[in-house]
């Protein structure tokens, strides 16, 4: 049954300027996202995602206070009143713009424009990571996080994989050994193409905002660079690295190792949240 039917009263109340049947609904890893004309409604897909809403609100408030050079969603209405049967939700401001179409990067001038703005974005996040107010609110990546991640994948996911899938996963997990523990920058954590919005002016895209800060931490910029490479390909990543003066071999090694874990990260989140659909998608190449 459609969310427009099951949550019709909630949609009408929280998005009063829109007709429920005209709303766009998108499914993310953690939330169903209902896009209105000037607001966005996030409905957690699992109980675990619902419990993370307060932390998400705190992080978004901290980011809204920074001059990052791009927009982030601002919390308007956290909801799901205690002691009621109302579904938990979060209403956010809507940021104009759309993700880049894949074929947009066939133009060399567009590639240069996008890469320059990504380099600026990452520099802004690095500066934000030095702000005491931000460091007081955002979680820091735990020391030994990749070692524990590897242990958890082996314990929780290996039984669901084929023998060849386990061998593949083991190679990817081994690549994490010895990764440097860094907490010097704000890291989005899911900087894929679908979470970065652009507006076009005079034939060129301009970064308008970044969505979906569920995984934001103080961590290693290699995580966001790996997501850029996965979302747009090696040519754009190389250009971003050049423009940002990130060229040391250690960073390239970290990017490659982290990128190799993306599907396993998705699957591990999913099994813990009880999300069978996302689990199946994350493990599709390991079965």
Helix and strand layout, with pairings?
Elements: H1 3-6, H2 8-14, E1 24-27, E2 31-35, E3 39-44, H3 47-51, H4 53-64, E4 75-79, E5 89-93, H5 108-128, H6 132-137, H7 145-156, H8 163-174, E6 185-187, E7 196-201, E8 204-210, E9 217-219, H9 222-232, H10 234-243, H11 249-259, H12 262-273, H13 276-282
Helix-and-strand structural type:
alpha+beta
| Poorly predicted runs | none
Structure annotation, total helices: 13
Count of DSSP E strands? 9
Radius of gyration, in Å, reads 19 Å
The biggest sheet, with number of strands, parallel, antiparallel or mixed sense and barrel status, is: 5 strands, antiparallel
Order of helices and strands: HHEEEHHEEHHHHEEEEHHHHH
Net shape: globular
Alpha-carbon distance between the two ends: 30 Å
Q: Which range best describes the helical content: under 10%, 10-25%, 25-40%, 40-55%, 55-70% or over 70%?
A: 40-55%
Summarize the structure.
With 287 residues, this protein is an alpha+beta fold.
Describe the structure.
It is a single chain. With 287 residues, the chain is an alpha+beta fold. It contains 13 helices and nine strands. It has helices at 3-6, 8-14, 47-51, 53-64, 108-128, 132-137, 145-156, 163-174, 222-232, 234-243, 249-259, 262-273, 276-282, and strands at residues 24-27, 31-35, 39-44, 75-79, 89-93, 185-187, 196-201, 204-210, 217-219. Helix 9 (222-232) runs antiparallel to helix 10.
